[in-house]
Amino acid sequence: MTDLILETKKLTKEFLGFVAVNAVDLRVERGSIHALIGPNGAGKTTCFNLLTKFITPTSGEIFFNSQNITSAKPAQIARKGIIRSFQISAVFPNMTVLENVRIGLQREEGTSFHFWKSDASLDKLNDRARALLAEVDLLEFQDHITSSLPYGRKRALEIATTLAMEPELMLLDEPTQGMGHEDVDRVTRLIKKVSAGRTILIVEHNMNVISSIADRITVLARGTVLAEGDYATVSTNPAVMEAYMGTADAVLQGAHA
Ligand SMILES: Nc1ncnc2c1ncn2[C@@H]1O[C@H](COP(=O)(O)OP(=O)(O)OP(=O)(O)O)[C@@H](O)[C@H]1O
Ligand SMILES: [Mg+2]
Prior knowledge:
CATH class of the largest domain: Alpha Beta
Number of strands: 11
Radius of gyration: 19 Å
CATH architecture of the largest domain: 3-Layer(aba) Sandwich
Shape: globular
Largest sheet: 6 strands, mixed
CATH superfamily of the largest domain: P-loop containing nucleotide triphosphate hydrolases
Bound molecules: adenosine-5'-triphosphate, magnesium ion
Structural class: alpha/beta
Oligomer: single chain
Order of helices and strands: EEEEHEEHEHHHHEHEHEEHHH
Number of helices: 11
């Protein structure tokens, strides 16, 4: 028996008669990096919006740790440990890197704006914030103003503020989008590193990233699951290659280069 952290059953979302997500059965194993891929408009982001209850499914069910969360509210979802990166990672550009992580931690502890808290608890907070910064290789930048960070480092900071929420399941929607080579490599390694002891569901167009870190891949096309399996399996699937034709076909090949 596989240990599923997340399962959807016939998850469906219609927008005015247009079926963006169509009877999707997603099974995410605990501790894995699970990728959701597919051509533009396949329904990937809509799936994420459904999982975080940003939008309500038309039909179907969502189970987290075997518990039916289909009608849970977004705040309840977050409290249960499903955290989508960008949702809470609105980093404050004029604060330092350390301050940003500290705010994430205070939010987690529900102590935001309790300025009367003791020095001892502030020290404890700083220690935890520094540990998270170390985890994403940003410790040396702790006193830098956030806006001065290079793009890839900002994404690393976003990941640190996400980790501050103690996610059991992290949802990352195109984490390497708009990045140059070096940043892509850095963030890819970072995702692999922070996946230890956690589960990650990632939407990503870069097949090099997918092939190097994803344990399992679900391919969506026009709202439905086209294929599922490891990289070797899905990248050689004729239906997948056809869905990607003209665009990612080359990319799928390129990942082996
Ligand atoms: N709020 C909405 N109202 C109407 N249609 C929507 C809405 N949100 C998404 N759609 C449509 O649903 C389809 C799936 O969109 P979605 O954003 O989930 O795709 P995606 O797989 O994330 O694509 P991309 O790779 O471009 O990010 C698209 O055709 C989109 O236009
Ligand atoms: Mg999208």
